[in-house]
Amino acid sequence: xxxxxxxxxxxxxxxxxxxxxxxxxxxxxxxxxxxxxxxxxxxxxxxxxxxxxxxxxxxxxxxxxxxxxxxxxxxxxxxxxxxxxxxxxxxxxxxxxxxxxxxxxxxxxxxxxxxxxxxxxxxxxxxxxxxxxxxxxxxxxxxxxxxxxxxxxxxxxxxxxxxxxxxxxxxxxx
Length: 174
What we know:
Layout: E1 3-6, H1 13-31, H2 37-63, E2 65-69, E3 72-76, E4 83-85, E5 95-97, E6 107-116, E7 119-126, E8 131-136, E9 142-146, E10 151-156, H3 160-172
Parallel strand pairs: 8-10
Antiparallel strand pairs: 1-2, 2-3, 3-4, 5-9, 6-7, 7-8, 9-10
């Protein structure tokens, strides 16, 4: 049996960031219009790539899904999404938390990820020094799921209790 849990949709921060970045990048492209064609082509390619990346994060901030099954956890809808096999997870140690009340679990250093206003995804270091793969929009509704790989997965969920129950069912079915 599979259960799908959506991420808490982000506020307008990622969309506003995308919009402002688009304006700045289009201005850069406009300024490069008088440059030699090879320079303009390179600038246009870089601008397009950045806009594509930013748009994917703005979209993901409202559409990431977490799928729990006997096979493990699948994170879909973000470039950092992946499948985590059930044997690599420690669902018995998973906890729901409010990051504003537990600052030691707050992401502080992005090592390979996106940190937009209202949305963080990818690899981060936490305030306590631990590594984490995060998909966080709402710091007040987060589930921390430790793994056997030496890192935790932090997920913003509208219904953390239901997600934790699905993880516990996964243990029973293993």
